[in-house]
Amino acid sequence: MNISRNLSLLGSAVVISLATPVAPSLAQSGITHASHRAFYEISIGRVDPGSTIVDARGRMVAEWRAACDGWTTTQRLRVSMAPGEGEPIESEVRMTSFERLDGTEYTFDSETKIGGETVEAVQGKAKRPGPGQAGVATYDVPRGTIVEFPSDTVFPFEHTITILEAAERGAPRAFNYYFDGSQPDISPMASNALILGKPRDGADGSENSFGTLSDYPWWPVRLAMFNGRAATSGNEEPEFEMTQILQNNGVVRKFEFDYGAFSLIAALVNIEEFERPKCG
């Protein structure tokens, strides 16, 4: 298991969902996404026989904050994973990004640490003429790195909006490319997602006890992310898999991150809504 790669993907998975091949601009979308800060408690989920990790504890905070010209996302994650033998693996992921409403620009800055040492750091900007068009990302860290992405690539907030649009239409499955700046050696990543059934009522489940913001219809979504540089023949093993409980206002009640021999669960424990800005 590639711990550093999977931890970076765990952070970006907070905003990974499903997208359609060509997305409208965020300003034109009819979906209402809540501007909010969500707090999650991380614990061990499934542990298979022979797993090198037997326990885990941590916290995650994710913010989606509306601005007049786009959305700012901030994510902070700290988790301690206990192996069967030896000292716990202490890790931290920090990510910030800004995505313009017109879909032309996306800036990103993230760092992953294990045992206090940085194992991945990325910073840069992606540009394209508009949604549904090819573009290029230029990195300041690592300096000189350039990633070109095809027209059916979506940025994180656009990704969340389009999963909700697909779910509302009753689409059961979708495939496209996803770019959030992390993992430039395999980006843009290829995403294959399943919307598992019809929407559930907001009162269903145990994660709807945080006021009106957490009482919305939701879907379980299963997502597999693949190396976007590899051929998509259908025979590749995914780099990362997860399931999330996604409400139709963009709030995620629960994540389950699948590492093969074990899984981590991030369950919603509190949520705060931001007041939207007054724009002219």
Number of domain units: 1
- Return the average pLDDT rounded to an integer: 84
Question: Structural class of the secondary structure composition?
Answer: mainly beta
Major sheet size, sense and barrel closure: 15 strands, mixed
* Strand composition percent: over 45%
Helical amount: under 10%
The counted number of beta strands is 15
Element order: H for helix, E for strand: HEEEEEEEEEHEEEEEE
Structure description:
By secondary structure, this protein is mainly β. Helix content is 9%, strand content 48%. It has helices spanning 3-12, 156-169; strands spanning 36-47, 53-66, 70-83, 89-100, 105-114, 117-127, 135-141, 146-149, 153-154, 173-178, 189-195, 218-226, 240-247, 252-258, 262-273. It has a 15-stranded mixed beta sheet. The longest helix is centred in the middle third of the chain and has 14 residues, at 156-169.
List the helices and strands and how they pair.
Blueprint lengths: L2 H10 L23 E12 L5 E14 L3 E14 L5 E12 L4 E10 L2 E11 L7 E7 L4 E4 L3 E2 L1 H14 L3 E6 L10 E7 L22 E9 L13 E8 L4 E7 L3 E12 L7
Parallel strand pairs: 9-10
Antiparallel strand pairs: 1-2, 1-15, 2-3, 3-4, 4-5, 5-6, 6-7, 7-8, 10-11, 11-12, 12-13, 13-14, 14-15
